[in-house]
Amino acid sequence: MYVDMPAAQLPDYRSSQVEPDDFDSFWDETIAAARAAASAVVLEPVDSPLATIDVFDVTFSGFDGQPVKAWLRVPKGVTGPLSAVVHYVGYGGGRGHHLENLLWASAGFAHFQMDTRGQGSGWSMGATPDPVGTGPQYPGVMTRGIDSRESYYYRRLFTDAVRAIDTVRELAFIDPARVSVFGQSQGGGIALAVAGLVPDLAAIAPCVPFLCDFPRATVITDAYPYKEIRDFLAVHRDKTEAVAAVLPYFDGVNFARRAQAPALFSASQMDATCPPSTIYGAYNLYAGEKSMSLWQYNGHEGGGIVDEQRAIAFFRTIDGNR
């Protein structure tokens, strides 16, 4: 069933999220520190049965120089320069098995699939720990370190995601001007954050993005993972104001205000996990060229493979126009 406002009202919706005065300086300092702590990228060929794709096991430096894993899949025998798609995954998942997610490389892109620190056991395997200790949290990562912007989990994850872009652009067979980002759910939210933090991406495709419009998302849906924040505050009643001060630094709404890359969004009218108004909260303020696919009869699966099909065509169009 429909879980949110009618489709006709979505283009006029505006989020109540407030932008912190020091939003840009906070992120500039965080990313600069990660870049200063970076070490050399490690790229190891994977012994694979694939006949048309080469796979590499990648280790790169993320937040605070901490090691982060990724898979790099490229069309076999291609020397470049290639267009690249950096792929961020959904909540609870990791980079998975190297034989999974072969679509992007099969379509001719270099496909860099970043692992998600501290996740990767809910539905897809991960290999990257989150070594930073934090205080009490509700199960999941939504409240990990939520007492402050410095310790919040998504500070580390978003920084990893920016460093993934840096890493891909360092590779000799990648055209650094043709790097796009793709993600679904949490991955879409990460893609949106990266678009606000990296000014010269080729394009982005955030599908049913999570982590948008916290003031509305935390009160409009009973679905997890947003409900992790509500459950945490139901116990820690004295932390409501502190959490409200932290979340604007990690809200897709505020990243969207800064993003300039051409963007292909998607949302679903029956999505209780990421209600469409929360996505439109970011979409309506997105500063770059943009379009939206609104799926009338779908839930959090969104357009599924059709979202990916449209993203492939979109990225190819952007490449052709460069």
TrEMBL record:
Active site residues according to the UniProt entry: S185, D271, H300
Biological process per Gene Ontology, one example term: polysaccharide metabolic process
Residues spanning the signal sequence: none
One GO molecular-function entry: carboxylic ester hydrolase activity
Binding site for substrate: Y91
Domain of life: Bacteria
Domain annotation Acetyl xylan esterase: ranges: 3-315
Cross-referenced PANTHER family: CEPHALOSPORIN-C DEACETYLASE
UniProt name for this protein: Acetylesterase
Organism: Mycetocola manganoxydans
